[in-house]
From TrEMBL, chain A:
One of its GO terms (biological process) is xyloglucan metabolic process. SUPFAM superfamilies: Oligoxyloglucan reducing end-specific cellobiohydrolase. The lineage of its organism: Bacteria, Bacillati, Actinomycetota, Actinomycetes, Micromonosporales. It comes from Micromonospora haikouensis. InterPro entries: WD40/YVTN_repeat-like_dom_sf (IPR015943), Xyloglucanase_GH74 (IPR052025). CDD domains: Sialidase_non-viral. This is Glycosyl hydrolase. It comes from the Bacteria.
UniProtKB/TrEMBL annotation, chain B:
This is Molybdopterin synthase subunit MoaD. InterPro entries: Beta-grasp_dom_sf, Mopterin_synth/thiamin_S_b, SAMP1_3, Sulfur_Carrier/Prot_Modifier, ThiS/MoaD-like. It comes from Micromonospora haikouensis. PANTHER family: SULFUR CARRIER PROTEIN CYSO, SULFUR CARRIER PROTEIN SLR0821-RELATED.
Length: 361, 91
């Protein structure tokens, strides 16, 4: 079995593969050099796995490319795969997220974009169409932009019900549809927006990442711009699970693919101090849905450590036991073959890591 | 006829060609629209879906920056040379 780790960086996509149970890795790249690869997906629903990369050239704009031979060759359609219709007056800044839908829709792939919008592909990620109802939502004019731009960075299809989908955006918060995207409603009750005069608004929160629990699809976890939360009602109301963490600031939130209640995060000290807490490289794991947390650092650098981990730069694979991966803004990628108990270096000296995704292929 | 000079990073979109010939003159918009018909992947690297020339793409008409000639309304007479150059950008 081959495990593929796709590493999107500020200057291209790197691919690491392992054929010995994730002990050693071979690195190739950069694919799509001199593009920022903010989104990558490994779609294993297909007989032949498909890689999808959302890349942005600072000169020549954004695009999405696909590969059906694990990155040996890439394809792009003639026309722009993700583009705003003319009547919107908008243009694509970048694709922030590429998410294959559930097993009931094997050719559906979702794309979250900047400016904040959701696109849907029915040809497995070759071409996409704007989800009009979210774009035309009356709240849209009030959605703001964080430092990274205004973007839908998280797309969470429901694993069993194709009609249900959640998205998260910065800023704007979490929105849900229960009718395949025809209508959308915010779901941010309980998430604090300390940076607004009304700290508990209906929408406008700066949610950094949302993940869905492996066992209960109504259970979601959110890393917010200060605040770590859990929802047990499908993402409508949220409760803090930050008490056991050394800081409630950070970007990623990753849920175990099969073990209910297990999640990982990478806390940073604060909005105003975006370094690992105590300047130590530590992943935090909860095995009880955020009730308690433990620091994981075996194999990680022991000395003072300053790089951050961005919202999509941490992931889990689908192997057994589950592997966990994270990449840093200093171009290092670490992996764990034992759910985070111990770590080892997969790659170093890469450009800044924007996203990672891993799967058995 | 108008000649379009393609920069190195984009020649892969046009079969390796360094220069293309476009059988239309008029404005720069006309030329780029015509180009898009034959080479859509090149065209979308140069302009976004609103038709605006991308911020870090520079287009020169007979050596003059099109932004000083009216942008996409810049006149491109028959025989003109349109040169596309990536700007100095990035880190």
């Amino acid at each position: 079995m081959t495990t593929l780790l796709a590493i999107g960086t500020g200057k291209g996509l790197f691919l690491a593969t392992s054929t010995d149970g994730r002990r050693t890795w071979q690195l190739s790249g950069p694919h799509h050099p001199m593009t920022g690869v903010y989104a990558v997906a490994v779609d294993t629903r297909r007989e032949v796995p498909r890689l999808l990369a959302g890349m942005t050239s600072s000169h020549f704009g954004p695009s999405v490319a696909t590969s059906d031979d694990l990155g040996a060759s890439w394809q792009e359609p003639e026309q722009a795969p993700v583009a705003f219709p003319a009547d919107t007056g908008a243009s694509l800044g970048r694709v922030w997220q590429l998410t294959p839908a559930g097993p009931a829709e094997p050719d559906v792939v979702w794309a979250g974009t900047e400016p904040s919008a959701l696109f849907r592909s029915t040809d497995a990620g070759r071409t996409f169409e704007l989800v009009r109802a979210l774009w035309e939502h009356p709240h849209r004019e009030q959605w703001g932009a964080g430092f990274g731009g205004q973007a839908v960075h998280t797309v969470l299809p429901h694993p069993h019900d194709p009609a249900r989908i959640a998205v998260a955006m910065s800023t704007g918060g979490v929105y849900h549809s229960a009718d395949a995207g025809a209508t959308w409603a915010p779901g941010n009750t309980g998430i604090r927006a300390y940076f607004l005069p009304d700290e508990w608004p209906e929408f406008g929160q700066c949610v950094h990442k949302v993940a869905r629990d492996a066992g209960d699809p109504e259970r979601l976890y959110a890393q917010n711009h200060h605040g770590v939360y859990r929802s047990d009602d499908g993402g409508h109301t949220w409760l803090s699970i930050a008490a056991g963490l050394p800081s409630d600031f950070g970007f990623p939130m990753v849920a175990h693919p099969t073990r209910p209640g297990m999640i990982w995060s990478f806390p940073l000290a604060a909005d105003s101090r975006r370094f690992p807490v105590d300047e130590r490289c530590r992943v935090y794991r909860s095995a009880d849905a955020g009730g308690t947390w433990e620091a994981l650092s075996a194999g990680l650098p022991a000395g003072p450590y300053f790089p951050a981990v961005l919202r999509d730069a941490m992931c889990a694979d689908d192997a057994d036991p589950t592997g966990v991966y994270f990449g840093t803004r200093s171009g290092e990628v670490y992996a764990s073959r034992d759910e985070g108990d111990s770590w080892f270096l997969v790659a170093a000296h890469l450009p800044d890591v924007l996203c990672v995704r891993a799967a058995e292929v | 006829m108008v000649t379009v000079l393609v920069p190195g990073p984009l020649r892969g979109e046009v079969g390796g060609a360094a220069r293309l010939t476009v059988a239309v003159a008029g404005t720069l918009r006309d030329v780029l629209d015509e180009l898009a018909g034959e080479w859509p992947r090149l065209a979308r690297r140069l302009r976004d879906e609103r038709g605006e020339v991308r911020r870090h793409v520079n287009v020169y008409v007979d050596g003059e920056d099109c932004r000083h000639l009216g942008g996409l309304d810049a006149p491109v007479p028959p025989g003109a040379e349109v040169q596309v150059l990536p700007s100095v950008a990035g880190g």
